Amino acid sequence: MPVYLDHAATSPIRASVLELYVSTLSEIGNPASVHSFGQRSRQILEQAREDIANAINCDRNEVIFTSGGTESDNLAVKGLYWNENNKDSEKKVIVSAAAEHHAVLDAINWLVDSQNAELYLIPSDDQGVLDIAELEKFLDKNSSRVALISVMWANNEIGVIHPIAKITQIARGYQIPVHSDAIAALGHIPVSFAESGLAAMTITGHKLGGPVGSGALILRRDQKITPVNHGGGQERNLRSGTPDASSAAALALTITEAVYEQVELATKHREMTDRLIAGVKQIANDVIVSSENAPRLPNNAHFRFPGCLGDSLLFLLDSDGVSISTGSACTAGVSGPSHVVLSLGASNDEAMGTLRITLGHSTQDQDIAAFLKAFPKAYEGAKKAGLTRR
Fold first, then answer.
1. Which member of 3, 160, 174, 298 has the greatest number of CB atoms within 10 A?
2. Are 215 and 203 in contact (CB under 8 A)?
3. pLDDT in tens, 307-352
4. How far does Cα 195 stand from its chain's mean position?
């Protein structure tokens, strides 16, 4: 049986979610319509909003449905920047992390190129954790010019967990709004919007067993942003367009189930990743385990193999029925070293020799056993090939 260990890219849809998704797709009606069909769709949509709020500890009115993580990140980054910059034209600086997700970094860079924004990247330590001292130092001198801070809750490539509560505590002293992409964290570690201190938070469902194309921006009730899309004024007049009630319902059930299972699955996944890491170290004694000595997601194991190409390992393992990745699927097909791994101080060659294994709700012990059985042969082949694609 083929083995799938790339859940940070996307995860198989849960049977319960698929059943609900298909059944709600048969419902007719625009949630904005006042007739009975429309009101049924509205009921589905609002129940989904309520369920998500209960799962992540926020107010139901703080849930803004979107098409997924990238849209939510763009709405948060651009919307917060425009709102803050319109109030004070001196607020041009956006602070983020050197290892941030491209959905955030590219949105910021668009603002830099077209809106005269400025980007300041906070470095990470050699484990990938955001340098809090550097953040404090920068804000102490430049806080009056900072429009927002955007730092992901946990890194989707290397699995490191950032100190979000500490970041928001520091930012609060300067009245700077903080956004966090929590997609990699949700369902794997505790995530509470109310306790986080965040102004905005991005979530999605397809990496937890929901359908692709479902997501939400969680926006604090007292936080204003400028909308990116304009039209019918749906979703608090912040995300115009007919809401997809079926996707919202599927997203809500996915998150509800993932949060309910989180503690049990985290224990199971931590044991599995520990077994994976130990098995890889037995074969590749010079392997570097990313963020090994930092707070790390329980379902993530990220490796660097000196003298190997990650792509070689990927293809050799895939030919043996084991599917993994070399890094973020959001930059799939882009040749070159990962900016995340480079931020750890790795060389270009080291950054080309990576492998990421991520577990999900459907991962079983036999999947781990299959990887450990296939890995020695794949590693030997990749080692012989060396760094030939340069």
1. 160
2. yes
3. 999 999 999 999 999 999 997 555 555 567 899 999 988 889 889 9
4. 19
What is the pairing mode between strands 93-97 and 146-150?
A: parallel
Alpha-carbon distance of 53 to 71, in angstroms, equals 19
Residue at 318: amino acid letter: D
Residue the block writes with tokens 């034209």: 89
Q: Residue 33 corresponds to which tokens in the numbers above?
A: 């319509």
Quickly tell me which residue has 């429009």 as its tokens. 147
Nearest alpha-carbon partner for 121 in 347, 339, 295, 293: 339
Residue 308 catalytic? no
Q: What is the dihedral of CA 316, 333, 127, 296, to 10 degrees?
A: -80
Q: For residues 51 and 252, what is the distance between their CA atoms, to the nearest angstrom?
A: 6
| This prediction's pTM | 0.95
Query: pLDDT of 33-87, one tens digit each?
Result: 999 999 999 999 999 999 999 999 999 999 999 999 999 999 999 999 999 999 9
Residue 177: how many CA atoms within 13 Å on its side-chain side? 24
349: Cα within 13 Å, side-chain hemisphere: 6
| Domains of the chain and any CATH numbers | 3-10+262-385 (3.90.1150.10), 15-257 (3.40.640.10)
Give φ, ψ of 40 to 5 degrees: -65, -45
Q: How far apart are CA 265 and CA 189, in angstroms?
A: 10
Largest CA distance in the chain: 68
Distances (CA, A) of 251 to 20, 85, 149, 165: 10, 33, 27, 25
Q: Which residues contact 337 (CB under 8 A, 6 or more apart)?
A: 346, 348, 351, 352
Residue from 171, 172, 163, 182 nearest 76 by CA: 182
DSSP state of 12: P
Annotated active-site residue in 121, 212, 330, 387: 330
Return d(Cα 111, Cα 228) in angstroms, integer. Answer: 12
